[in-house]
C-alpha cells in the first residue's frame, strides 16, 4: 500500500497533498500514535531475570548518531532513559518502531522513555509507555545539508496544515479541545504549528486511541524540526493529553531542543 494511502486511512487526511516533509511527518506520527500502543503491549518482558540483566540507562549519557560523517549528540530529556539494544524487549521495540519509521522515509536515531515507566514496562508491571521521546532524520538527507530552513518548514506546515483549524483558533489549548470534539476513536488531527523561532519549528498531532484492553486515551505527538551541525534533525515528544497540557509538553520539548543544540556546540 502506498504511503499516501496509509496516511489517508490512518488519519482521515484527504488526498491530493504530495509526499513532502509535511505528509511524511503526518504519516509517521499517525503510525506511531496508533501502531505503537499495540507494539508496546506485545513486547513486554517475559521474565524478571531479563529485567535484571539490563537496568535503565541514565539520561546523563547522550546517545550519538553519525549522519554523513557528522557525529551528532542526542541527549535524552531529564528523567528519561534510553532503550537499549542489549535488552531483548527494548531491542524488539527498537526494531519494530525503527522499521515503521524507515517505511515513512525517516531513520530512528534515538528512543528514550520515562525511566520509571520503562523500568515498570520491562518488569511487566505496565502495558504501555505513555511518555517517550525520539530523534529522527530523513533517510534521503542523512549525508546532505538541509534542503530548507526551519522557518521554511514552518511556513509550509502552516500553508498545508494550519488551514485545518489553527487559523480559526489561535490559542493552542482551545485548538486542541476543538479538534477533540471532531476526532473520533482511532482518528488523528493535526493541531498545526505551535511555535517557532529562527532555528526551530514546533508542531503536532493529537489522537483518540482505544487500547486493546478497552481503555481510551488521548495522546499528543509533538515534534520539532531543527538544524544541528548542518543536518536536519526531528525531535519528537509523546505524552497522554489530560494529565499534561499541550503547553507543558511543548515546554519540555523546547528544553530538549535547547539541550540538543548545547550538546553539539
Report what the structure shows.
- This protein is of the alpha+beta class and 265 residues long.
- It has one domain (3-262).
- It is 37% helix and 28% strand.
- It has eight helices and nine strands.
- It has helices at residues 3-11, 21-42, 48-53, 88-103, 115-122, 150-160, 172-181, 246-262; strands at residues 63-67, 70-74, 80-82, 106-114, 132-138, 188-197, 200-210, 216-228, 231-240.
- It is globular, with a radius of gyration of 18 Å.
Task: Describe the protein's topology.
Blueprint: H1 3-11, H2 21-42, H3 48-53, E1 63-67, E2 70-74, E3 80-82, H4 88-103, E4 106-114, H5 115-122, E5 132-138, H6 150-160, H7 172-181, E6 188-197, E7 200-210, E8 216-228, E9 231-240, H8 246-262
Antiparallel strand pairs: 1-2, 3-4, 4-5, 5-9, 6-7, 7-8, 8-9
Helix pairs in contact: 1-2, 2-4
Strand order of the largest sheet: 3-4-5-9-8-7-6
Cα-based radius of gyration, to the nearest Å: 18 Å
Q: Mean pLDDT, as a whole number?
A: 77
Specify the helix fraction band. 25-40%
Number of domains: 1
**Order of H and E elements:** HHHEEEHEHEHHEEEEH
State the end-to-end CA separation: 42 Å
Q: Name the structural class.
A: alpha+beta
Which regions have little confidence, pLDDT < 50, spanning 5+ residues? Answer: 1-19, 34-38, 40-61
Main sheet, how many strands, which sense, barrel? 7 strands, antiparallel
How many H/I helices? 8
What would the principal axes of the Cα set say about the shape?
A: globular
- Roughly what fraction of the amino acids lie in strands? 25-35%
According to DSSP, the number of beta strands is 9
